[in-house]
Amino acid sequence: MQIQYLFELLGTCFFAISGALVANNKSAPDWFGVTFIGFITAIGGGSLRDILLGSYPIGWVKDVHFIYAILAGTLLASIFYTTLHKLRKTLFLFDTLGIALFTIVGTEKALGLGAGPVTAAIMGMFSAVMGGVLRDILTNEIPIIFHKEIYATACLTGAALYLLLFYFNIDRNLNFWLSGALIAGIRILAVRYNLSLPKFRKDTADTI
Amino acid sequence: MQIQYLFELLGTCFFAISGALVANNKSAPDWFGVTFIGFITAIGGGSLRDILLGSYPIGWVKDVHFIYAILAGTLLASIFYTTLHKLRKTLFLFDTLGIALFTIVGTEKALGLGAGPVTAAIMGMFSAVMGGVLRDILTNEIPIIFHKEIYATACLTGAALYLLLFYFNIDRNLNFWLSGALIAGIRILAVRYNLSLPKFRKDTADTI
Amino acid sequence: MQIQYLFELLGTCFFAISGALVANNKSAPDWFGVTFIGFITAIGGGSLRDILLGSYPIGWVKDVHFIYAILAGTLLASIFYTTLHKLRKTLFLFDTLGIALFTIVGTEKALGLGAGPVTAAIMGMFSAVMGGVLRDILTNEIPIIFHKEIYATACLTGAALYLLLFYFNIDRNLNFWLSGALIAGIRILAVRYNLSLPKFRKDTADTI
Asked: How many separate domains does chain C show?
């Protein structure tokens, strides 16, 4: 469990870094604005999950280390700004590890609170992607879940695998790594090979 | 009560259909994006009401049938896409029945939790319109409540009638139908005769 | 305490006025739209704070006087529209008093619920600024916290002073006025002398 707590802090830090870098692409905001966006990116998904589940106290409200992790992420984003922008692949990897981790943690938390499998999978996906959605709303971007490459669907798939193995009583740690790896794997393949889900309707533009 | 539960599932399905159709008008998103928007449209208002009232567990978190209703709505929206776009009047009717139903259900729920009449009316209106507001925020549209024709005000009026009849001890079922009909009636007349509330200030553009 | 309750109602009314005036600058919405924006501006920050802290019932849900204060604010905004637009400095002062008051009230509330100092300061700042952030999201403006002059940082600074004096057991009322004055003072100086925080990275535009 101790190692998972470390993972969560690390995931929070990664999300704050990615939030800070995205925020800064918009009209050069000041330190507060960037930190604020990093903060919302990092805690948005988990907070929404806990609010929807009625699970109090919310993680970062109770445990100030999550806030320190966010401040550290913002600071790192500032110091290594140029490097991080060059290492876009590294950043992408951080985000991928972050969503894989948060999906499984969120799914487990919902299950532990008595949620059914469908709700648990949704809560896992929300944990992973809703911070980014809130970040995109605040910065007036098109929300990341509407981007071309598979993103939230990877989280849902990983959550589904976790739930399947969970009901087959597979060892929890093995399940954690297998399902997390599936999410990261799908996401990496999706970006590498430009994979996307089918459009809802191809003839949209014409019918309007 | 059983029939009301069916109504709620149906209302959820209608909102998901309308959400999916609106979402798809924006730059042809994929299946996940459209389903996600349908989901937020359908559960946004009720979830916000329950969060504000501190009423847990939230409906769709507890009862997976609401999620099935949303998936069914998205699927129907895809299959009957062309037809639904032609039958805009049918769609409008679905939305109208949806907001009428959700307003009364939301008002009743708030009353049952001890809310006063003003708060109960606001909660009823929130149940009906906030899903659409969230949908519009996510898709960067001007929120529906700022559109020209009377929308949320119809919900508030119906909620007010419900509360009035409630305090006069009118039979609950009769009250349900009367107040719901008032909401639907106002909304239909508003669209048919292009009725709108007075502007806040007519001279806005000039004073700025 | 009685006088603080009056202050809170007054602060709510001020925020509703500022929300109504901002809303009306956007494409002349109707009375409902303007009242709705005033409402969200006034109760958004406190509601989010209470939801994050799991502190129920939420103020305005329990106490209808807050809703009356908002309606009064919207009405005042309509009646004195031209005057208020001319007296931009008066309006600015109202907003400044509002954020100073809400920051301290929010910080105190979080402390009273057992939050640590960092969380309490964040909750105080959220109480003050998140209503305006929600207003800006709804009206598609750039959120106020990203504006040039110091805004939310003034709230955080005042909350920090409050917490410092709180842990030194300074008289609560004295602390209330001192910390509130610091927020208002910073904000006034920031606007008067055009003070802003340093940019996150000066070279943003070039690196992208």
From this structure: 1
User: Is A128 inside a domain boundary?
Assistant: yes
In the prediction, which pLDDT does C125 show? 96
**Interface probe, candidates A134, A136, A146, A196, chain B, greatest B C-beta count within 10 A:** A146
CB pairs under 8 A between B and C: 71
Nearest to A30 among C54, C115, C197 (CB): C197
Q: How far from B184 is each of B150, B164, C88, CA to CA, in Å?
A: 11, 18, 42
The verdict on residue B208 lying in a domain is no
* C101: in domain: yes
Dihedral, CA of residue C30, residue C32, residue C36 and residue C42, to nearest 10: 90
Q: Which residues of B touch A145 (CB under 8 A)?
A: 32-33, 36
Nearest to C61 among B53, B146, B196 (CB): B53
Hey, what are B51's tokens?
């969060």
Residue ranges of the alpha helices (H) in chain C? 2-24, 31-53, 59-62, 65-79, 81-86, 88-112, 117-138, 152-167, 172-192, 204-207
Specify the DSSP element, H or E, that contains A83.
helix A81-86
Question: Which residues in chain A come in under a pLDDT of 50?
Answer: 204-208
State the ipTM, two decimals: 0.90
- For residue B198, give the amino acid letter: P
Predicted pLDDT of residue B99 = 93
Q: Are A47 and A66 in contact (CB under 8 A)?
A: no
Closest C-chain CA to A136: C137
pLDDT tens for each residue of A32-53: 888 999 999 999 999 999 999 9
Chains that touch A (3 or more CB pairs under 8 A): B, C
Residue A58: its chain C contacts at CB < 8 A? 52, 54
The verdict on a CB contact (< 8 Å) between A24 and C200 is yes
**Does a structural domain hold residue C206?**
no
Full domain range(s) for residue C134:
2-198
Residues 6+ apart with CB under 8 A from A97: A11, A14, A184
Asked if A201 and B61 come within 8 Å (Cβ–Cβ), the reply is no
- In this structure, which amino acid lies at residue A109? K
pLDDT band at residue B28 using 50, 70 and 90 as cut-offs: low
Q: Quick check: C154 and C186 in contact, CB under 8 A?
A: yes
Contact list, B71 vs chain A (CB under 8 Å): none
